[in-house]
Amino acid sequence: MGRVFDYLHRELEGGPLHLTLIDPDKSPGEKAAAIAEAAVKLGSHAILLGGSTGITPEVMGAAASAIRTRVPVPTIIFPEGPRSLTPAADAVFFMSLLNSRNLDLVIRAHARAAPMIRAMKLEPLSLGYLVIAPGMRVGEVGAVDAVDREDLASAEGFALAAEMLGMRFVYLEAGSGAPSPVPDPMIRAVRRSLSIPLIVGGGIRSAADARGVLDAGAQILVTGTVTETEGIGSNFRGILAEVVRDRGH
Hints:
8 strands; single chain; eight-stranded parallel beta barrel; 10 helices; TIM Barrel
């Protein structure tokens, strides 16, 4: 499929993965690179860049360029929109916000961005992005009808539809800063339904949170808020230790 896609799938053969999400508005340039370098040394498998609304290509490009000089793993854009794109990254999550009422976030923005992605030679990683209550800021900005935390059938249906539409990953998102992660029963239900990798993010702040999400069946964990609030501290190290443990390293 592509270099980054192949890398992620190859690494998944060894167990679950961890992606570190860095907001270049809050951690610009060399600060982003320092966080990325420390995270990769602890076992993180790729760096996601994104988070803020209204992020500029210049800010994104500076962070991606700095990170690529410091770490050997891929840098993947976690886009807020077409202005999040930069050729300095390796790939972009080409993600449809499945439960948004705003068609721009389901497909229209993608139509505008696709020629730019091709021109920049970014590798698109197609992804179905599903926001689970409480959803937090992404739920508000994304005009989302958040899936109730006990509505397993809806989560399964959205996820399976994404796979049937040809998407290569499904991402269950509780929202940045959520008080708790996506519920374990929902992760289990969705994982049983899918034959593509399941990503889970939002509300994962501790080793105990990570252990619950991993045991429920998440294949890729994403954390961002914990590094923004605490840096590369004990909680982030504990999360990475749980991932590394499951990989048998």
